[in-house]
Design goal:
By secondary structure, the chain is an alpha/beta fold. The protein has six helices and twelve strands. It has helices at about 45-60, 90-100, 135-145, 160-170, 215-235, 255-260; strands at about 1-10, 15-20, 25-35, 65-70, 75-85, 110-115, 125-135, 150-155, 180-185, 190-195, 200-210, 240-250. Helix 1 (about 45-60) crosses helix 3 and helix 5 (about 215-235) packs across helix 6.
Length: about 260
């Protein structure tokens, strides 16, 4: 049995789940949220952030050291690449080569990962979705975890995890795998927009929302429409959203829910 801590690294707070993992089963021990103090320089002073986080997690009763950090979409650069058809073992080299030609930052200054996307039957293109962060950002997070007494075992990007939850739901409910699903994930003012096609993440975008401002809701709807249009341009076809999956924290935003309807 291993004890694992998973943290959603928000701008204003850190949401966490501590769980026992054994034999393919997960037993949640505790979950909670710690709010970052306003005076804490979260982007600059890693030792201070780590020391504060260590105290906050101890006060919450967390004992796990192995840690997964999930970064919000706004902290990660994603890009859809279209590669020639190639065996899986050749994909990493092809991705790095094309990513280097598309990135304004030298690749040796970035941490790069990717996921293959569903391939159209008979198609000549192998699409992938890449995710990158600055290596300096990774070192900063590693220093925070080290000071907090945590062992950073995995760094992940929120849209991929949220998409996995939506895909598992759709499989369990025998939803049409060829339909396009819009996934809207909201935590506080953070809104992530993702499109699923053939049960795979095809596109992802992010925005911020003010629940008390009707203009902010209209701006979010504009971002949703823009995301759907952008996906269609990438796929060279017209995209029709057939399902919407809304995920949110404990406080559902009725304005956003009504706007989506």
């Amino acid at each position: 049995m291993s004890l694992l801590l998973a943290c959603d690294w928000n701008r204003d707070a850190l949401d966490f789940v501590e769980a026992e993992v054994a034999g393919g089963r997960v037993n949640v021990r505790r979950l909670g949220r710690v709010v970052w103090p306003e005076e804490l320089d979260r982007d600059g002073d890693a030792p201070a952030v780590g020391a504060w986080l260590k105290r906050a997690l101890a006060d919450a009763g967390v004992q796990a050291q192995e840690t997964i950090l999930v970064l919000p979409r706004e902290d990660v650069v994603t890009r859809r690449l279209e590669l020639p058809q190639a065996p899986d073992d050749e994909l990493p080299d092809l991705v790095r080569f094309q990513a280097a030609t598309r990135s304004a930052t030298p690749l040796d200054q970035l941490v790069l990962d990717f996921v293959p996307l569903p391939v159209t039957e008979g198609g000549a293109i192998r699409p992938v979705l890449t995710a990158t962060i600055e290596r300096t950002d990774l070192r900063h997070l590693q220093q925070i975890c080290e000071t907090a007494g945590l062992q950073l075992t995995s760094l992940q990007a929120s849209p991929f995890n949220v998409a996995e939850v939506a895909v598992r739901y759709e499989r369990q409910h025998d939803e049409d795998p060829n339909a396009t699903t819009l996934v809207v994930y909201q935590v506080d003012t953070r809104v992530e927009l993702s499109s699923l096609q053939r049960l795979g993440l095809a596109f992802t975008h992010q925005t911020r929302i003010n629940p008390r401002d009707e203009r902010s809701l209209r701006a979010t709807l504009a971002e949703i429409n823009r995301s759907v249009v952008t996906l269609g341009q990438m796929l060279h076809t017209t995209v029709t959203v057939e399902r919407v999956c809304l995920m949110h924290d404990e406080h559902v935003d009725p304005g956003l829910q009504q706007a989506l309807s």
